[in-house]
Design a protein that fits this description.
By secondary structure, this protein is an alpha/beta fold. The protein contains 8 helices and 7 strands, in the order E-E-H-E-H-E-H-E-H-H-E-H-E-H-H. A 7-stranded mixed beta sheet has the order 1-3-2-4-5-6-7. Helix 3 links the parallel strand 4 (93-98) and strand 5 (120-126). The chain starts with 15 loop residues before the first strand and ends in a 10-residue tail after the last helix. The mean pLDDT is 91.
Length: 261
């Protein structure tokens, strides 16, 4: 891992916050969690090896896209993100998603595989079982403000304090509610069309939203093998263990310094 100066950022495409690098050999596309935004991955470009170009997906309805309507269908969101990625061909793509972002990344990988154009080299998923597992028997959260804020507090602790400020709550609740509505409506069938790319699964060992036992369910969506890596911590273990996580991500990026064979 290398520490670098603050990277350049290209915001010309509202869908992608792109961090261009000279001599890029691989693109890492990052999909945020429910209620999250591209800034979840703000520090990743400077911590990854030379040759890695990070593209952080920016969903509508938040930050610079706050005036745009949020999506109500997760597959439709994935379709739109897929179209945005088609402008970035010529380098291997690796997709990373955390929590809801794992499901979006999975749908994008399926889209790209069906299209037969840009190939995904690896799917990296975090904090969620495979899409067909759903909530794994756990009760879905309600969509009222109190229920959603309680979920955020249970998963991310003091980060939920921002929702206690009325002005911020008014800005943030629409996208949070829209994302959980999408998850509530998202009902993928058991996988019949398997991915032909390997899947690496990351998770927190004390994650109340995704028990470690559910992480192995990703084996059922690919015919190219899978692996599971876990870290101490809850749903947002990746904040506390960001450096260690990114070291493992780097080892799985084809063509990048430090990539595993």
């Amino acid at each position: 891992m290398v520490e670098a100066r603050r990277p350049k950022v290209d915001n010309s495409d509202p869908w992608l916050r792109r961090y261009p690098v000279d001599g890029a050999r691989v693109r890492l596309v990052c999909f945020p969690h429910a209620g999250g935004s591209a800034t979840s991955y703000l520090d990743w470009p400077r911590q990854l090896p030379d040759g890695v170009e990070v593209l952080a997906v920016q969903y509508p309805g938040r930050q610079n896209r706050i005036a745009e309507p949020c999506f109500e269908s997760l597959p439709e969101l994935a379709d739109a993100a897929t179209r945005a990625l088609k402008a970035h061909t010529g380098l291997p793509l690796v997709l990373f998603g955390h929590s809801m972002g794992s499901a979006v990344a999975y749908e994008v990988a399926r889209n790209l595989q069906r299209d037969g154009g840009q190939r995904v080299a690896r799917l990296l998923v975090s904090g969620r079982g495979a899409p067909h597992v759903g909530y794994g028997g756990r009760r879905r959260p309600g969509l009222d403000d109190a229920s959603l804020i309680a979920v955020v507090r249970a998963l991310s602790g003091s980060d939920a304090d921002v929702y206690e400020h009325p002005d911020m709550r008014d800005l943030l609740m629409p996208s949070l509610r829209a994302d959980y509505t999408m998850l509530d409506r998202y009902q993928p069938a058991a996988p019949t069309e398997l991915l032909d790319v390997p899947v690496t699964v990351f998770g927190g060992q004390q994650d109340p939203a995704c028990p470690v036992a559910e992480l192995d369910s990703w084996a059922e969506v690919t015919n190219a093998g899978h692996e599971v890596l876990t870290y101490p911590g809850g749903h947002f273990y990746l904040r506390e263990h960001e450096r260690a996580l990114l070291a493992e991500v780097a080892r799985r990026l084809p063509g990048a310094d430090g990539a595993q064979a």
